[in-house]
Amino acid sequence: MGDLFQPTHLLVLGVIVFLLFGAKRLPELGKGLGEGLKGFKEGIKGVTEPAHPAAQPVAPMVQQQPAAPVQPVSQPIEPK
């Protein structure tokens, strides 16, 4: 499977694409592919980064009250 992208294979594939689409259509296909990749990258960038980082509200600092101390049991429980 590693032999799939040998230079001769890529050359043959390029010739087949050239014969199928012709010299006039290849620049159009390349331009369309480039614009599609650019749009895809912009879409992915929008997912990974927040849209407006300054618009996110900041939670105020809240001080917690200390927990009440545990009261010891007045009479120890004896095993039966």
UniProtKB/TrEMBL annotation:
GO terms for cellular component: plasma membrane. The keyword Electron transport does not apply. Residues 50-80 are annotated as: Disordered. It is found in: Cell membrane. The chain crosses the membrane at residues 6-23. It is a single-pass membrane protein. This is Sec-independent protein translocase protein TatA. It comes from mine drainage metagenome.
